[in-house]
Design brief:
By secondary structure, the chain is of the alpha/beta class. The protein has one domain: Alpha-Beta Barrel (TIM Barrel). It has ten helices and ten strands. The strands form two sheets. Strands 1-2-3-4-7-8-9-10 form an eight-stranded parallel barrel, surrounded by five helices. Strands 5-6 form a two-stranded antiparallel sheet. β9, α9 and β10 form a beta-alpha-beta unit. α2 packs across α10 and α8 runs parallel beside α9.
């Protein structure tokens, strides 16, 4: 019998040594899974995404008010009208406010999760990005902020059943390694909480991005693609190797671009970056 401690020790050794990493298995996802890779953006709106030839967009939930913008039925109705007009869906919601009002310390955190889950269900978005950057960073001087993680684990545990009932995945995005994130997910122990994997953030931390993707497998709910201030494929990230890893794990879902706009024309640059992603994955 392999204990949890033994599992985590072996996982750490595998990542450090570049060895073949063990498979992590999960139950089937409760969310509707696209039949193919789809390309979205969190930098432009639905109308611009339509012009750029994208498949959808990720939208922000609003700033740290007691009632989030996404919780307003009138705001959601505006999004529904835009979706109807463009024929494009909202792929996911982004809780960027948690970078200023951390989930671990703001007493409204659980209520915000619930508001976002309800909003995602109403809009048909399958993923909610739960962010941990800025003030919400779970690392300090290279060490995990354990007290903050303890609160985060508890709040996500409490929100997970509501997410499952709504057919929504709560996807945590942070600066932690695959091993550290796996430990958090083990503690939460619910299939409706997974990872939002940002290839640019992970590379900037010095992590082996293709190896992490192959190891995490089904724990990844969604991807962010970016390459600092450049067009995709023109920076330091090895996107051919990243794409090979994504293909290998059989991922079928959203790749959301969080890309720069070198030309200062976000729509044209989104179209260019989307074309690059399609070539990477052989999409028609």
């Amino acid at each position: 019998m392999i204990t949890r401690r033994t599992f985590l020790t072996r996982a750490a050794a595998g990542l450090a040594g570049g060895a073949v990493l063990p498979r992590l298995t999960l139950a089937a996802s409760p969310q509707p899974v696209p039949a193919r890779l789809r390309i979205g953006s969190c930098q432009i709106g639905l109308v611009e995404a339509k012009a750029a030839g994208l498949d959808g967009v990720e939208v922000r939930v609003g700033d740290g008010a007691d009632k989030l913008r996404i919780a307003d039925p009138a705001v959601r109705q505006q999004y529904k009208a835009q979706m109807a007009g463009t024929g494009l869906p909202i792929s996911s919601l982004m809780m960027g406010l948690l970078n200023v009002n951390p989930l671990a310390s703001d007493p409204r955190g659980l209520v915000w999760l619930e508001q976002c889950i309800d909003g995602a269900k109403d809009l048909g978005a399958g993923v909610i990005l739960v962010a941990f950057f800025g003030k919400g960073n779970l690392l300090e001087d290279g060490q995990v902020k354990q007290a903050a993680v303890d609160v985060v684990v508890q709040r996500l545990k409490e929100a997970a059943p509501r997410a499952k009932d709504a057919g929504v995945i709560l996807a945590i995005e942070n600066t932690l390694s695959a091993r550290q994130n796996a430990e958090i997910l083990e503690r939460i122990g619910h299939d409706s909480v997974r990872l939002y994997y940002d290839v640019g953030n992970s590379d900037s931390r010095g992590y082996d991005v293709p190896a992490e993707i192959r190891w995490l497998k089904q724990r990844i709910a969604c991807f962010h693609f970016k390459d600092r201030d450049r067009y995709l494929g023109e920076g330091k990230l090895q996107f051919d190797q990243i794409a090979a890893a994504i293909k290998e794990i059989g991922y079928q879902g959203w790749i959301v671009m969080e890309t720069a706009s070198p030309s200062k024309d976000p729509t044209a640059d989104a179209k260019r970056n989307a074309a690059y992603i399609r070539r990477l994955f052989g999409l028609g």
